[in-house]
Amino acid sequence: MKTTSHKSVHNPAVDRRSFLRTVLGACAFCPPLGFSLVQLAPSMSESLTKEQRDSMTPSQVIDELKKGNERFRTGKMAPRDYLAEKRSSAAGQYPAAVVLGCVDSRVPAEIVFDAGIGDIFTGRVAGNVINDDMLGSMEFGCAVSGAKLVLVLGHTACGAIKGTIDDVVLGNLTGLLARIKPAIPGAKFDGEKSSKNASYVDAVARTNVVLGLAEIRRRSPVLEDLEKKGSIKIIGAMYDVATGAVEFVG
Ligand SMILES: [Zn+2]
Which of 134, 183, 203, 218 has the fewest beta carbons closer than 10 A? Predict the structure, then answer.
C-alpha cells in the first residue's frame, strides 16, 4: 500500500477510490477515526493486506460496503487494475467480508459493492439459502481467514423466491426451495400473496434474509461466538435490481 504522493492528493479520482482502500489506506498509518480521506491515496492496484484488513472494525467494513454500493449506484466506480490486484493477492488473501448472495446474474457482489480481487469472499446459491457447506465457508472466511463481516445478500425480483411461492417441483431445485419455505409464513404482508405481486415477492425475500441470519447463529456456534465477542458482525441486506441500491437489514 503506497502512501499518497503529492500529485494524488489533488487527483479528483481520489473520491472514487476502490472498496476499503480509502479507510484501509488511512488506517495503516493513522488512527481509525478522524483521518482525512485525502491524506493518503488508495492504491488501485493492490489487494488488501493483513494489516489493513485487521485494522478495520466490522462496522467500518459495513461502511465501506455502503460506500462501494454508492459508487456503483451512481456510476462512479473506482478505476481498477485487475491484473495488478491479481498479482498483489497471489501470495495471500485477506478479505474483509463473506457475502452470501443469490446466483441471480444481476447481483454480482463484487460489482454492486465496487470491490476488487481479494476484497471479499463470495458464496452464491439460489435464494441465498443457508446450508452446511455455506456455513463452513463462512466459518473458514471468518474464523480461519479473519474476515470481519458475514453478509447475507437477498435481492428484489428473486426467481428462487417466486419459485418457492409457486411451489415449483423440479429435480434438486425442490429441496433447495424447501429451505426458503419458512419465509412464506414468516413474511408479514397485507395484499395479494402471489408470485405476480412484486411487493410480496420482495417481502418474502427480505424475510428469507432475516431468517437466514438467525439460521447462521443457530447452526454455527463458531460464528455466533465470534459475533458475541465483537470480532465479526452478521448482517443482512437487500439489493434492488432496478435501482442498484443495497439496503441493510437485520
Ligand atoms: Zn435470486
Answer: 218
